[in-house]
Amino acid sequence: MNKVKIGIIGCGNISSIYLTNLSTMFEITEVSACADIILENAVKKAEEFNIKKACSVEELLRDPDIKIVLNLTTPNSHFEVSMAALEAGKNVYVEKPLALTREQGIKLINKAKEKGLLVGGAPDTFLGGGLQTCRKLIDEGWIGTPVAATAFMTCHGHESWHPAPDFYYKVGGGPMFDMGPYYLTALLSLMGPVAAVSGMTRKTFPQRTITSEPNYGKVIDVEVPTHVTGLLEFASGAIGTIITSFDVWDANLPYIEIYGSLGSLKVPDPNTFGGPVLIKIAGQAEWMEIPLTHGYTGNSRGVGVADMAYALLSGRDHRANVALTYHVLDIMHAIEDSSKEGKHIQLRSTLIRPSALPLGLLPGKLDK
Hints:
It is globular, with a radius of gyration of 20 Å. By secondary structure, it is an alpha/beta fold. The protein has 2 domains: 4-121, 3-Layer(aba) Sandwich (Rossmann fold), CATH 3.40.50.720; 129-289, 2-Layer Sandwich (Dihydrodipicolinate Reductase, domain 2), CATH 3.30.360. It has a 9-stranded mixed sheet. A 6-stranded parallel sheet has the order 3-2-1-4-5-6, sandwiched between helices. It has helices spanning 15-24, 39-49, 57-62, 75-87, 102-115, 129-139, 174-191, 303-314, 322-341; strands at 4-9, 29-35, 53-55, 68-71, 91-94, 119-121, 146-154, 194-202, 207-209, 219-221, 227-234, 239-245, 256-260, 263-267, 278-281, 288-289, 345-346. Helix 4 (75-87) runs parallel beside helix 5 (102-115), helix 5 runs antiparallel to helix 9 (322-341) and helix 7 (174-191) crosses helix 9 (322-341). It is 31% helix and 23% strand.
């Protein structure tokens, strides 16, 4: 099989798992270059993962063999780097979020259409065995018609462990923009598009003090809401509740639960690819664990990139597509808009649920 060459821009912490998986896990991908604004970072990653070329961003974008640019820069650079890649004729897969604003997202969509290119992005955890098993159960009617859902992500922020947590409290960060994409993408892949939202937000602590190294004692001014609650009205009529928070010291909450007319489904952590998946049908006394029906249950970050590569070769739709990533961006902004404006927000964006992965895929493959 002809491999699709990938160029990675941004060689920070998250790049290692992408470099590992895109170099070894999938039959269709090859990382042929990596770049970073600090060239030394790219050189180190290229040496560590045996990548042929470490170079500047400009040189990577000039490489005619690179078909997909994987944008792993920080959120405030997502739009600029993705737009430059599209202008250079490259398909783009970007870490979450797609962009900082809806306007930037629309510009990327329009540029991709103009150039005949694909855009998509993280998270791709919804393609893992855990969430794909949940998708199969819902599609087969195990819990009947979904009527409601809950999603919870609560912690007390990242300043106690992350080496450089500043950006989590700046525009493009906060619990909703940092972790919300995992939970919203999971819900959208399982239940379809959201039609309207209501939200309430607060910023509990105006400053955060870093207690991790190497910036111990540094004070961060918080620019974004750090406790966000949203009500989601799905186009199907189901109602969802989502809470994302950096203000909670501890809690005992599920990750995601889907409540149907015939039973309930416990969905695994959407920031992972595996299980467990639990179901309780009406009348049953106990929850029952369901064996996972699909592969990619370990840390399979990059599966969305590989799926884009298959789409380039076959012409089929790719799953972690821009309609999905933009709808997530739209929902996150709409929740904050609702809180600021004190009103229900009707969404203008929508999507068609990405197709489920086929059963029985061999390791390293996404198409039969």
